[in-house]
Amino acid sequence: MPHLSEERILTGMKIGNVHIEGRVFLAPLAGITDTSFRLLCREFGAALVFTEMISADGLVRGNTNTLRYLFFSQSERPIAIQIFGSDPETMAEGARRAARQKPDLIDLNLACPVRKVVRRMAGAALLRDLRLTEKVCRAVVGAVDTPVTIKIRSGWSSDSIVAVDVAQMAHGCGISAVTVHPRTQKMHFSGSADWSLIARVKEAVPIPVIGSGDVTSPSDAREIFEQTGCDAIMIGRASLGQPWIFKQINHYLENKELSAPPTLEERFDIALRHTRLAVKEKGELLGVRTMRKHLTWYTKGLPGAAPLRQRIFCVETVGDIEDLFGEYVAHTRAEVAA
Fold first, then answer.
1. Domains plus CATH for the chain?
2. Which entry of 112, 137, 173, 230 is annotated as an active-site residue?
3. Fewer CB within 10 Å, N- or C-terminus of the chain?
4. pLDDT by residue (tens digit) across 50-80?
C-alpha cells in the first residue's frame, strides 16, 4: 500500500509551471460547473476548478453557444479549460483559441462516456484508438504554451484496460498531468471505481496523477490518498448540493477530524449565495431556472423535503426562493418545538 505523506498531502503542488495551493479539485461536470458553481467551490477550498467540457469543433467554428463556455473570472483561478474532440488539427486549433483566454491549464477529455460524445470518436472513445489519442495529445501540446493535462477512464471495456499505457504515452507527448477515473466507458457511473488502477498509473509515470471516482466523504478522500499515492483528488458528483465538501475534506486531511455540516439555515444561505452568483452571471430568469436542479440537490436528505422539491421547479425569482426556504425553515423549527 502506498505510504501517505502528511507533508505532501497538506502542501501545494505543481502541474507544469502552475503552482496549486491544495490537492482537492473540482471535476468538470457538463451542465454543472459554470462560473457560479466554480466560484462557490473555490470559496469552500477547491484548489483547482475545471470548466464544463467544451467542443473543440464548436470553438473552431466560432459557435456562440460554445464560446460562452470559455468565460471565467479571475477569482476562479487556478482554472483549467477542458476541451473534447477527436481530430488532431481541430483539437490543436481549439486549444489555441482556448489559450487566448489565458487559463492556467488546458485539459483534454478522454473520459466522457455519453453516447453523443463517443459516437463522434471523442471522450472515452479515444481510448479505443491509442494512435489517434497520441496524435491528439502531440498536436495540442505542440499548439499551446499552456500546460496540457488529460482526464481518462480505465479503458473502453473490461477486456481493454489501457489507463497505464495511455498515461505513459501522454507523458511522452509532454502532457503535464493525468486524471484517472477508474471505470470503463461501458460502466458509465455504475459499479465501483477500481482505485488500484490509479496506484498502477502513479507507479508508471513521473507526472502528477489525480485520482477520481467514488470519493464522497472526507474519509474516502483520505483513503484514496492512502491506497493510491495519488498527487491530488477530484470531486465531482459528491459536490452537488454540498459545495462545502471541499472545506470538510481539507479540514479532515489536516486535522484528522470531521467538521460539523452546515446547519439548515447555513445550507439555505449557501444555496441563496449560489443563486445570486448565477443571477449575476446569467440574469434572473435564466439564472434561477438554471439553479432549480441545484436547489433540489441542496435539499437532499432534509426531512419532509419532497413537497419542497416539487415547488422548487416552479420558482422564477430570487424572492420566490427566499420565501420558499423561509417557509420551510419556519415550518421545520415549529415541528421541532412542538
1. 6-255 (3.20.20.70), 264-337 (1.10.1200.80)
2. 112
3. C
4. 999 999 999 999 999 999 999 999 999 999 9
